[in-house]
Design goal:
By secondary structure, the protein is α/β, with parallel strands linked by helices. It is 34% helix and 28% strand. The protein folds into 2 domains: 217 residues, P-loop containing nucleotide triphosphate hydrolases (Rossmann fold), CATH 3.40.50.300; 68 residues, Lrp/AsnC effector binding domain/regulation of amino acid metabolism (RAM) domain (Alpha-Beta Plaits). The mean pLDDT is 90. The strands form 3 sheets. The protein has a 6-stranded mixed β-sheet with strand order 6-7-8-3-9-10, sandwiched between helices. Strands 2-1-4-5 form a 4-stranded antiparallel β-sheet, with helices on one face. A 4-stranded antiparallel β-sheet has the order 12-13-11-14. The two termini are 35 Å apart. β12 and β13 form a beta hairpin.
Length: 309
Amino acid sequence: MIDVKDLCFDYPGKRALDHVSFTIEPHTITALVGPNGAGKTTLLRCLAALDSPMQGSIEMDSWDTERYPRKVHSICSYLSDFYGLYDDLTVSQILTFFAWSHDYQGNITELIEETAKRLDIWEYKNVSAGKLSRGLRQRLAIAQTIIHKPKILLLDEPASGLDPEARYNLSKLLITLQNEGMTLIVSSHILSELEDYCTHMIVLQEGKFVKQCALSDYQNNLKAITLRIEFTEDANRYLEIVKSLPNINIKTVDKQTLVIEFTGSSQEQHTLLKTLIEKQLPVMSIQEQKQRMQDVYISISEEKKKTKE
């Protein structure tokens, strides 16, 4: 468990974190989101026991970051947005060094091979870091972060520099780490990178805690669902008919596809489909679109604006 209470952090002339409090349950993947300057990186560095807050407390797996920073470093690993590598060392040497640094007691040779294969860099084990491409360097940085199998993993923009296939593999890796018992916090400006694997979300704005939610709970509590209706013909021809039906708000129309916001019950959704067929509309399919993380974030931001007004 991660427990943060009344956290404040100041830079000269600026408060980066302003009385931030939250609790993160074990074995979850939390997306840390917010605009530039919201305090995300500062918060991650405080959680990693690299920066000391001016006020408040942080417990990582029951260890206070101020009193026991060395212990926190042993159970927690942090990948910063701007990371460093030993360019003259090979991939294998770097991973060996980090395993030794964390006093890993198992078979280091097997550990290095396992970790390198997880990040698809095993074939580069004898290549020096300075000769790797940006994407391979990013994978190596992630590998050295997880080499000692920490309980808690903090990642700041982990997908930066990765190609689409590598990003997909990273998503699978993070889910695997969660299933193995790890607790993860991932910060990124690109919410589409987070929605495939995150279970929870914390929103920061201007250094202040805005909201924490389980993404599934937030979606289940929505008053409306989004339905995508596909026709065999131009959707514009049937726009007025669909618009006249109850519980419907038209969102977008694109060629043969109509996206609507539907506020009715599941029974009323059944009635909607039945009505479309009875009216002989050429419906090819109708399906619910799960709300994306970006939509959830925007909804939370709009709620915050309303409370200020």
